[in-house]
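Figure 6 in text form: structure in, sequence out.
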């Protein structure tokens, strides 16, 4: 009996040892992946600081909901600060203490926004660069000009710190979902579509507004399958509602049935869109197949 118990103890101890070794290997792998982003083909942009460019950039920052994550003054905010995951933030973008603005070059901004890789070569998590990769060069240049013009705010948030098992979750299990791994980096850059009530321009606006972050990539709605606000199915709107009802919902938050959308839907930002831009988005939605609601499974 004692001999049997001894062998059981050896086997159990061996299994525990193997689990610990595996955990360490996964931890180191996750940390390495997050700290060493893959090399990406970047596309430099020209940034000018004239008043028109800065104002255009302010508009793009608004519809891209930059303040939704980085704060109303782009001073930064904390996404996760919880053991045992760790500390994940949306950094201070200004040139104040703790901000990126004092050290980021135009090339750094381009790589971060359109490629999901920060100036230190780390994989950016949560950042919707898979959508912002669509930004045309001139529009992105204006956005960068605006960010650089924002008054400095002192807000030292520190650096991202992931613990065990945070590095495993973010760097192994969720790694393929981060933007840098979902972008055709060789296709990034070039001119944005011409402004007009066209489906092409409408798709561009939907991309840079990151609509897929809440409505799912196929725009058939987030009904619990994404860790983000639950945006409804947009593919069915053209068959169920008029353009006027769509414009009212997009720009005032007033749904056709009289309900008011919460401010998780940034309709106040979209209120700044022109009739042409609203028409372009509507034109694009009309090209989509009407899909059933995405399931939560």
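Output sequence:
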């Amino acid at each position: 009996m004692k001999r049997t118990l001894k062998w059981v103890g050896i086997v159990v101890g061996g299994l525990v040892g193997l689990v610990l070794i595996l955990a360490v290997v996964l931890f180191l792998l996750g940390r390495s992946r997050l700290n060493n982003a893959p090399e990406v083909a970047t596309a430099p942009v020209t940034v000018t600081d004239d008043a028109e460019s800065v104002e255009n950039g302010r508009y793009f920052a608004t519809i891209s909901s930059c303040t939704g994550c980085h704060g109303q003054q782009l001073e930064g905010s904390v996404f996760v600060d919880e053991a045992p995951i760790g500390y994940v933030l949306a950094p201070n973008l200004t040139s104040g203490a703790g901000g990126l603005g004092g050290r980021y070059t135009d090339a750094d901004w381009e790589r971060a926004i359109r490629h999901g890789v920060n100036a230190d070569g780390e994989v950016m998590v949560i950042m919707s660069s898979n959508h912002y990769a669509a930004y045309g060069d001139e529009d992105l240049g204006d956005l960068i000009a605006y960010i650089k013009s924002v008054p400095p705010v002192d807000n030292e948030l520190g650096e991202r710190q992931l613990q065990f098992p945070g590095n495993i979750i973010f760097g192994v299990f969720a790694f393929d979902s981060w933007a840098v791994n979902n972008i055709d980096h060789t296709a990034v850059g070039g001119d944005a579509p011409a402004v007009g009530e066209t489906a092409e321009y409408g798709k561009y606006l939907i991309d840079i507004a990151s609509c897929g972050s809440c409505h799912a990539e196929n725009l058939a709605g987030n009904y619990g399958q994404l860790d983000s606000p639950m945006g409804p199915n947009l593919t069915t709107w053209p068959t169920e509602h008029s353009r006027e009802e769509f414009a009212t919902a997009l720009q005032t938050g007033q749904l056709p049935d009289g309900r008011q959308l919460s401010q998780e839907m940034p309709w106040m930002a979209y209120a700044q869109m022109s009739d042409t831009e609203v028409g372009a988005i509507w034109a694009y939605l009309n090209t989509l197949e009407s899909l059933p609601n995405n399931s939560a499974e």
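Caption detail: Residues 51-187 form a domain with the Cytochrome Bc1 Complex; Chain D, domain 2 fold (CATH 1.10.760).
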